[in-house]
């Protein structure tokens, strides 16, 4: 089910478009997609692997059908997520975050620990190399669209989606690809927001509050790794026994490539 909210708070806090899956009385999960993604990416995991949970899956600012207007920084994303949880969650939630969504999950837990009871971070992208981020931001600005759907799919197949089932890639195209004004096609997102947001991943890492049950999944086919030794050491120092680090043999799209394993890790904390 997809929900589009009207502005009911200060206009400084965007109201996010979001999707919900599962029973209304199920244990609650806030599921945060990665850069260039959208909330409906969690549908397969929700319907086929975590059907007992109530999953709230927003489109982040600049993505999908949520507002595209700035600010686009992590603080704005966290504020919008806080508002979403205060309006639509029954209490503290488990936050499941992929890539950029993993970074946001940690910032949300640090800023609003009363809203977060546990974290599952899928190949989180945080404190990445600034030179790499400059390169990817410039490429995003230079090549924001595609000739057709086949070209868009080819980019994913030859990248992070190499081990994702074909039917999920077809669904991604159906849900998220749209005609561009120049006669080409593009993912449903704001290029300006994405370019600005890549730079946010260079920010210093943030460690969740002590005692926050946290699972970090490292995708071992991602090289150089997003989950660096420095990142793991910082979490180990800050979380101690509350931290579990798991390696999965997959590319970056962990929830799509290894949904049963992800569901099992989530279920341990529900």
Kindly describe this structure.
This protein is α/β, with parallel strands linked by helices. It has an eight-stranded mixed sheet, sandwiched between helices. The chain has a two-stranded antiparallel ribbon with strand order 7-8. It is built from ten helices and ten strands. 42% of the residues are buried. α2 packs across α3 (100-111) and α4 (130-142) packs antiparallel against α7 (191-200).
How far the N terminus sits from the C terminus, by CA atoms, comes to: 22 Å
The class by helix and strand makeup works out as: alpha/beta
- In CATH, what is the homologous superfamily? Alpha/Beta hydrolase fold, catalytic domain
Strand content: 15-25%
Reported by name, the CATH topology is: Rossmann fold
The global form is globular
Strand order of the largest sheet: 1-2-4-3-5-6-9-10
Low-confidence region ranges:
3-10
Task: Report the major sheet.
Answer: 8 strands, mixed
Percent range for helical residues?
Answer: 25-40%
What's the mean pLDDT score? 95
What is the CATH level 1 assignment?
Answer: Alpha Beta
Radius of gyration: 17 Å
Number of DSSP strand runs? 10
CATH architecture: 3-Layer(aba) Sandwich
Tally the helices.
10
Compact description:
The chain is α/β, with parallel strands linked by helices. The protein contains 10 helices and 10 strands.
Per-chain topology:
Blueprint: E1 2-3, E2 18-21, E3 28-32, H1 43-48, E4 54-58, H2 74-88, E5 93-98, H3 100-111, E6 116-122, H4 130-142, H5 149-157, H6 166-176, E7 177-179, E8 185-187, H7 191-200, E9 213-219, H8 229-239, E10 243-248, H9 254-257, H10 259-269
Parallel strand pairs: 3-4, 3-5, 5-6, 6-9, 9-10
Antiparallel strand pairs: 1-2, 2-4, 7-8
